[in-house]
Amino acid sequence: MNIKQLLLFLLSILITGLMSGCGTEPQEDLPTRSTKGLVGSSNYIIKNPETNFVTVAEANGITMNASTAGGIESIGGFAIEKNNARALGAPVDGLITTGELREAIKLIQSAGYTADVSTINEQVFSKYTNFTVGDYTITTTSAQSPVSLANQILNTLNTSAIILPNGPGSTSTSFRMFMTVTSFNNRYYYTVSISPSNSAIFEENFALMTALSSGTNYTGTNERLVSIENPFAGKAGTVNQADFLFVIDDSGSMGDKQDALSTAATDFEAALNLANMNFNLAIITTSDGADGTECNASCYDRSVLDVNAGIMTDINIFKAQIDTVGTIGSGLETGIYNAEQSLRKTANGDSSNGLLNSSTFNFPRAQTQLSIIILSDEVSQYPERSGGIAFNPSNNLFLRDGYLVNALVDIGLCGDKSVYQPGADTNGQYDKLAVATGGLVGNICNGGDTPNFSAIMQNIVFQAAGKYKLTKNFAKPNSITVTVNGLESRPSIKQGYMYIEGTNSIAFFGVLPLEGASVNVYFEYPKPINLFDND
């Protein structure tokens, strides 16, 4: 903030005080809830130490280590500006943040301290600032603490002499890492958060790491933070509720991927249980007809209309239905078109109801978040079924009805296992639709010769769990404080809450607030410094 901005800001505060009573908009409350550390030309927000964070200002960044229920210093990480000595990575699907993220991962993969780095999924945000966050598994060549690993990654990316403070954290050779590349004020920043991948430790750290990794935590020097409290009454029901539609590629190349999805169904079920989720499941395929036969009105409804399946509420039936999808469908694949037609609703303005909203089915249920999971190793061929009409990822039924689309596809990381020539559009429109709806873009080749979808299945469940939608966009995840009947809840997917950035909502896990309970969410969000803005 320069001198002129500071004077205008102080003057606006004075005018606000003189005009008190003119409105009840939230007042700035930054000094009592957050600390700010300078990162280049922006600020990264980390809560005060009483919430178990230790923040240490370093030469060009902020380092962080956290003590949580997962153990002493079981999270290591940092936020730092990109070293400008190296050129930015080439854009991916027009996104510099995604290209730079992949370039950074290549550097980490080639470093001597990692034996393997594998991409689980990526998620793109562009509502406040542009950032891409990736979820990764890391195997190291020797046992170390998450802070020690974060320190090595920091120096790989920044080539500086910054040293993170290392404490008595537990050591491991297997880690999960959330890494974000953020574009802000024409500069680029890395944010990294690392935890041992041991299930008990990682489950304790997951929600906290998600908050740490958000690019929304950056705040420009021409902005100020404003606080607000959103009060809610506890919603009816002791469980969360979500519906899931799986759109599965049934072409000949999909055998091992379908096996991986069937295996991941166990972890999908575990995540549903963690989220206390009441769920409905349905399966359709990407095919235009079994055995390459002529497409007809019901060519994509084999699993949905099967007498033993339909809309499923039993995970074991779901597993069995995955196994019946098979790989004898047509090579002409129209997953987006099939899902779109299946979900049509006259109540939402469509000319007819789709097969999932017929007299037999009502899917998704009213007031229920729908998550769509598209599993395919080839491109969408939407115009082949739509009469030549191109699909528009930014104007469609999925956005209209608020559905989250998750694409588990070839994102260019399949190497010689890809069915595409180098440089081809490997993920077609599936990934673009996922980005537009706020969903995840998963790596269908995660796990190499033995695909592993367990982690992304869990991520998809957690994304769908939000029930309490915030009234202001661009909440700073690290500023959020949640209380239930006056008692503070902690970020946790075992017993606590999690902020779901894709839907701008709070999800509770474990024992949910009872109906009518007093739920209060405090958070901060950015506002331009404006002389005449009285909040």
| Beta strand % | 25-35%
As an assembly, this protein is single chain
User: What's the rounded overall pLDDT mean?
Assistant: 77
In terms of per-residue confidence, which ranges show pLDDT below 50 for 5 or more consecutive residues?
Answer: 4-63, 290-299, 421-427
Question: How many DSSP-defined strands?
Answer: 22
Estimated helix fraction: 10-25%
Summarize the main sheet: 12 strands, mixed
What general form does the structure show?
globular
Q: Helix tally?
A: 11
Can you give a write-up of this model?
The chain has helices spanning 3-18, 30-33, 96-110, 146-158, 199-213, 255-274, 315-325, 335-342, 397-400, 430-437, 454-463, and strands at 34-39, 42-47, 53-57, 61-68, 71-81, 114-125, 130-144, 172-184, 187-196, 218-220, 223-233, 240-248, 277-285, 369-375, 404-409, 441-443, 468-469, 481-484, 487-489, 496-500, 505-509, 518-528. The chain is an alpha+beta fold. It has a twelve-stranded mixed beta sheet, sandwiched between helices. A four-stranded antiparallel beta sheet has the order 11-22-18-19, with no helix packed on it. α6 (255-274) packs antiparallel against α7 and α6 (255-274) packs across α11 (454-463).
Key terms for this structure?
535 residues; alpha+beta; 4-stranded antiparallel β-sheet; 22 strands; 23% helix; 31% strand
Please give the structural blueprint.
Layout: H1 3-18, H2 30-33, E1 34-39, E2 42-47, E3 53-57, E4 61-68, E5 71-81, H3 96-110, E6 114-125, E7 130-144, H4 146-158, E8 172-184, E9 187-196, H5 199-213, E10 218-220, E11 223-233, E12 240-248, H6 255-274, E13 277-285, H7 315-325, H8 335-342, E14 369-375, H9 397-400, E15 404-409, H10 430-437, E16 441-443, H11 454-463, E17 468-469, E18 481-484, E19 487-489, E20 496-500, E21 505-509, E22 518-528
Parallel strand pairs: 12-13, 12-14, 14-15, 15-16
Antiparallel strand pairs: 1-2, 2-10, 3-4, 4-5, 5-9, 6-7, 6-16, 7-8, 8-9, 11-22, 17-21, 18-19, 18-22, 20-21
